[in-house]
Amino acid sequence: MRIDGIILSLDVATNTGWCAGEPGNPNPDFGHFTIPPTGDDVGTYGLKYSAWLKGQLEGLKPALVIFEAPILPKKTTPTTARKLMGLAMLTEMAARHRGITVREGRASTVKKHFTGNGWAKKADTMAIARRYGWAVRTDDEADACALWAYAVCCYAPEHATRFALGPIAARQMF
Q: What strands, in cross-sheet order, belong to the sheet with 64-68?
């Protein structure tokens, strides 16, 4: 499957990193959104994320939404598990409701693709993103940029040459 249009990548969590752009654009837009604290109120948490996501989907009109598969640490509370899994479900539902193709990316696969190491640290992902000329401010933004680059390679391979050599070739585009 090939995608023609904007790719929106999401590192979904309380601090959600996002990256969006046409596959041929060397400088995608990116940023982060922090879901306000809600304690154990999972419903309000989901509503706050859904409202933000709706704005992104309606404003960007992406052809593809790709999100990082949720990872549940060993010591995860039931509330945290519900929140993380809920964000994934809400993302899929919102995209499908609008007829947008939606995919999920495994963190280790994306890290391996972007940094050359499936167990790369957050600082490594940030360093590679900056080598591509993306002035990421948080590791959430860097993870979203890595996921966007991965999606370009998978779903718009004609625009993937800048990522073909992996992290060794990462350099500022200008």
A: 29-34, 15-21, 7-11, 64-68, 101-105
- The residue extents of the domains of the chain are 7-169
**Contacts of residue 95, Cβ cutoff 8 Å, sequence gap at least 6:** 57, 65, 101, 102
The CATH fold assigned to 7-169 is: Nucleotidyltransferase; domain 5 (3.30.420)
Query: What SS3 string covers 88-157?
Result: HHHHHHHHHHCCCEEEEECHHHHHHHHHCCCCCCHHHHHHHHHHCCCCCCCHHHHHHHHHHHHHHHHHCH
| Tokens 């999606």, residue located | 151
Q: pTM score, two decimals?
A: 0.93
From the list 156, 51, 48, the residue with the least C-alpha distance to 103 is 156
Helix %, strand %, coil % for the chain, to 5? 50, 15, 35
Q: Tell me what pLDDT residue 173 has.
A: 42
Residues 14-37: pLDDT tens digits? 999 999 999 999 999 999 999 999
How far apart CA 45 and CA 48 sit, in angstroms, is: 5
What stretches in the chain show pLDDT beneath 50?
A: 172-174
